[in-house]
Amino acid sequence: MMESMVDKILQMIGEACCLYHRLILIVGPARSGKTSVIQKVSRNTSAALVNVFILWYKPMSNWRIVAWN
User: Fold this and answer.
1) Which SUPFAM superfamilies match (predicted)?
2) Which one of 1, 34, 54, 55 is most buried, counting C-beta atoms within 10 A?
3) Number of domains in the chain
4) Is the dihedral of CA 1, 29, 36, 20 positive or negative?
5) What's 4's DSSP letter?
6) pLDDT band, residue 66 (cuts 50/70/90)
7) Who contacts 50 (Cβ-Cβ below 8 Å, separation ≥6)?
């Protein structure tokens, strides 16, 4: 399963190079293997791995985005 996801992401990387934003989002439930797959993609491509955590919440209608590396 992990190999098929790695192959799919590598294909998406090739397709994203032609797009304006060149953005690929990896989304899934906790402990579904997102980080493991991205680590394998990083090793296969020699690309740097940047893990960004984004937290959205809405207290009193003030949206905040928190991200760090």
Assistant:
1) P-loop containing nucleoside triphosphate hydrolases
2) 34
3) 1
4) positive
5) H
6) low
7) 69
The model's pLDDT over 15-39, given as tens digits with 9 standing for 90+, comes to 888 888 888 888 888 888 988 999 9
3-state secondary structure 3-69: HHHHHHHHHHHHHHCCCCCCCCCCCCCCCCCHHHHHHHHHHHHCCCCCCCCCEEECCCCCCEEECCC
Beta strands in 1-69 (DSSP E): 55-57, 64-66
Whether the Cβ atoms of residue 43 and residue 9 lie closer than 8 Å to each other:
no
What's the whole-model pTM score?
A: 0.65
The predicted pLDDT at position 37 comes to: 92
Of how many residues is the chain composed? 69
